Amino acid sequence: MSRLSILFAASEMAPWVKTGGLGDVAAALPAALAKAQQDIRVLLPCYPALRAAFPAAKEVALLPALAPLLPPARLLAADADGLPLLLVDCPQLYDRPGNPYVDTHGRDWTDNGLRFGLLSRVAALLGQSHSPLDWRPDVVHANDWQTALAPAFLHYEGGAASVLTVHNVSFPGCFDPHLLHGLGLPDRAWRFDGVEYHGNLCFLKAGLQLAPLISTVSPTYAREIQDKHFGYGLAPLLHYRADALRGILNGIDDAIWNPATDPALEAPYAANRLASKRQNKAALQAQLGLAVRDDVPLFGVISRLTHQKGVDLLHPLGKAITHLPAQLVVLGSGEKELEAGFRELAEPHPDAVSVTVGFNETLAHRIEAGADIFVMPSRFEPCGLNQMYSLAYGTPPVVRATGGLADTVVDVNEATLLDKTANGFVFHHPSSHDLWIAMERAARAWKDRRTWLRIQQNGMRNDFSWRHAAGEYLQLYRDAVAARG
Description:
Layout: E1 5-9, H1 21-35, E2 39-45, H2 48-53, E3 58-63, E4 73-80, E5 83-89, H3 91-94, H4 112-126, E6 139-143, H5 144-147, H6 149-157, E7 161-166, E8 174-175, H7 179-182, E9 196-197, E10 200-202, H8 203-210, E11 213-216, H9 219-224, H10 235-240, E12 245-247, H11 277-288, E13 298-302, H12 311-314, H13 318-323, E14 327-332, H14 336-346, E15 353-357, H15 361-370, E16 373-376, H16 386-392, E17 397-400, H17 403-408, H18 414-418, E18 425-427, H19 432-447, H20 449-461, H21 466-484
Parallel strand pairs: 1-2, 1-6, 2-5, 6-7, 7-11, 11-12, 13-14, 13-16, 14-15, 16-17, 17-18
Antiparallel strand pairs: 3-4, 4-5, 8-10, 9-10
């Protein structure tokens, strides 16, 4: 089978709706599959941002109430630079401001079970014989808990093959059991080997149990989530389904993240002309009010300011960083205590520490290019993208050995320098002490310009594009179709 029809179902898609890595994947992987001549459609809720982005979206189907608690909806078709989108238009559920999952106070929308139950229900419907569209996918690709009921519907009702990708197992999507009938699931689904999980209807557990094949976003994370420390209660099920579980490392969009062509940069550069990178450092320092110095290393951080991301390990090191001496640039938002703590850190050291709370895409690019060293001390990281951006931009990262960070960053030591794989600095125990040792090692290596150039070029030679990952997903799809028979 050379060409597949694929429905990629997701709850967000960059650049219109993005809260994390899923949004990036939903934009980049389908585009890579389309370039590989596959017949793909992306199914999304019609949020206000998508309605505004595609005002000419065409109605292609009317969807009656598909279950007792689900309202009627419309299916709209749009084109995103040649990539076909299908938008579930249900203003009652999706016409809301801001974040797709939580309200302005940060609380989950109380009807999320219905909102993403509808999305899952429509994804399954499009893979069934009674679909309202002439187009029919060979495989439905569900992503995270928000679409994880699609494989369950297909399991109980028949239809296309399905796969489920877990981007972050810590969000299971558990709801009141009355949704079983409200979403149209059969009584026989309410079993330990169905959709029931500790007395709740659990979307992610249902998909992990019933999807023929499962993937996650890095090989190491695929192993980690089978361990109780990383599996968030689902480790026994994931271990049971280990033969169906594959780790496929995410890629990055190298048309957007390329220092040779990035329009956000002060000066373009490449692995064979890294001298221009210094201009980006000076421009970043000037933009953020730091002392313009080339004699101290500049550490960069772009992150959600949360416990998971390990930035609480970095915060106590602020004074030590300035005494190294070195500079620190932080961009991100998250837990209010951490936001306030980093702001307080910057106040007495405006020439050495810059903290920007919020997110700015242009500034993110400029930090990747202008920083000397990137810091990513995550407690767990299913895949991670910023370490790959940093490697592509010649900004060696300091990372903890977890998930995709362990799969992409090779620690600098005598052996890895000799075999030309050394591209960053790795620590293992999630502590400020171990993080500081890794940051000190990086700062010392930075002073040896000849060694530093080798480390930079090693990282820039890595190919983290979506081309390889797209090929692995195609094999996953073909195996799912073959398993269905």
